[in-house]
Fold this protein.
Amino acid sequence: MTTHFNSQAQGWRLDEPFHTPEILSFHQHLPDYAETPLHRLSPDLLQTLGVREIFVKDESIRCGLPAFKILGASWGAFRAIAKYLECPPSSSLDDLRCRAREANICLFTATDGNHGRAVARIANILGVKASVFVPRIMLDKTKEFIKGEGAFVTVVNGDYDAAVRAADEESRQAGGILIQDTAWPGYEEIPKVSLGSIAWIVQGYSTMMIEIDEQLSRLSIQGPTLVVVPIGVGSLGHAVVGHYKQKGRNTRILAVEPSTAACLQTSLENRQITPINTKDTSMCGMNCGTVSYTAWPYLYKGVDASITVTDKEAGKAQEQLRHQGVNVGPCGAATLAAISNLCNYHEDLARLTKDAVVVLLATEGPR
């Protein structure tokens, strides 16, 4: 376990708005949309960690898929196709589907699993083709899940970053639309919204935070003291910062990464994006070597602390959650391992009181 604390984040707040009402409305019209559960963990665990409440936002089933990724992939693809076809963003799913089918559009993406499956699903919904590039080490069953959504899958002889480069190159050659949940110089403009540098995919993730706020409000809780977010390339972290670091909020953010793929923590320590070589991990959804170019400024200024966990720690946390009726994957369980380590080893720096409300983002189901 390694930890990095960022003192500047406590006082830093965003000036621009992050999400717009039509995003939630769009998601509510997707097939199988339902608000995902916010589980309250047992008093025994609360007493051990010395906080008032710990909730788990369970994204193990989101619109019929086993991860949160459909939130970003659907909004990103919808907006990108609408722009390509010169349709207004207010177009309905049915209207855009009719136009898109006639245009012979293909969506391209790279993935370590869930994002590619989500892009393939929204492509299917909108009646367009999908081409998904995957790293060499991807499990066969994961490839089959993506193929099952109707996508063409290409295996790249390299890691996730190599798959991203291959998808970008192929989309340019084929004249397709790249729907990628990371960014680099040149791609951050595709797509971009008028509110600033917040990409459509990242904006799509805001529905998760809106749901959390509403669910806590029903329990007469104003908002979380701390949100613990898993980090891959950092796009979800970008969305969490964008939502909870608005003016008037006082929520802190803890980022968690595998000890074998700590690209954010390495970059925070170096104060610049620093690509790293990663190793295999059970938390394969976070096995990424480079922080997203557009996410970086927000993570650098808005993440209060970064912590790494091992596969063993994530596995133990996954078992703890299963005993409490929360069946999630190792990436989501890593958030419980992270807050446990923070409270056990850095209690003085965690600054969590007995009144603290902690929300863990469990981003996927079991793999």
In short: Residues 189-198 have pLDDT under 50 and may be disordered. The two ends are 24 Å apart (CA to CA).
